[in-house]
Design brief:
The protein is of the alpha+beta class and about 230 residues long. It has a single domain, classed as Alpha-Beta Plaits. About 30% of the residues lie in helices and about 10% in strands. It has a three-stranded antiparallel β-sheet with strand order 2-3-5. The chain has a two-stranded antiparallel sheet with strand order 1-4. The termini are far apart.
Length: about 230
């Protein structure tokens, strides 16, 4: 049989196909231009996330305002990306930030490292650390992506008081986690108001150091100092 591939008309089909190939490609483009766009119009239109979405972390509070974090550092140990830094401290009678013996004095999450795996919230024994649905964490400054305790703490809701303040009278640490505390009490409110009226020079009328309200500022300053050290 004669070889048909080398006939006089063998190159005609290849030439026509090469000629109309770009037209076919542009035809797909033109046809797509008139279809409805399926792209999300973000950030003008934001779709809601799933209920269990792993977004920005949050440090939760008890109903009276005391913090749930006890500074155990288990979340930092469980983090595979080494993104969490915790420094615990002891509660005192005049400066109580959480039920029990200790609280998280310094708490930082480096979102440059965080992979949002959720292992930290699984390791937390007090359900102090959870993940929200907030996901807009992009920034043009690396230092601003190191979140401190002040940024991660849940806001004060109705019935809550800003710590430090004592526990509810007659309640123990386990009573808090059993749901027996529902809000702050008049005794706690009176304690906080009394500390607000104390002198701001760091000395009580008796000349003893004041540990109440100033402890909050000291803790925040220590958090800032630690943050700057990490950034350097």
């Amino acid at each position: 049989m004669a070889d048909q591939t080398n006939g006089p008309d063998s190159g005609k089909g290849g030439f026509l196909s090469d000629l109309f190939a770009p037209v076919g490609g542009f035809g797909v483009t033109f046809a797509t231009m008139f279809r409805k766009v399926e792209t999300e119009e973000y950030p003008e239109e934001k779709r809601p996330t799933q209920p269990r979405y792993h977004g920005r972390h949050q440090l939760n509070r008890h109903p009276d305002g005391l913090e749930k974090c006890v500074g155990c550092e288990l979340c930092a140990w469980a983090c595979p990306a080494d993104a969490i830094f915790v420094e615990g401290a002891d509660n005192t009678a005049d400066a109580r930030f959480s039920p029990g013996e200790r609280y998280g004095r310094v708490y930082q999450i480096n979102y440059l490292r965080c992979i949002f795996c959720g292992l930290c919230i699984e390791a937390c024994p007090t359900r102090a650390l959870t993940m929200t649905n907030f996901y807009e964490l992009a920034d043009d400054n690396r230092a601003d992506l190191i979140f401190t305790k002040e940024q991660l703490l849940a806001p004060l809701l109705e019935g809550m008081l800003p710590p430090p303040h004592p526990m509810v009278d007659g309640m123990e640490e386990r009573d808090y986690y059993q749901g027996k505390v529902t809000s702050s009490t008049p005794e706690q409110e009176a304690w906080v108001r009394a500390r607000e009226d104390e002198p701001q020079d760091g000395l009580a009328p008796t000349g003893d150091p004041v540990i109440g309200v100033d402890t909050v500022a000291d803790g925040r300053q220590a958090t800032r100092d630690t943050t700057e050290a990490v950034r350097r």
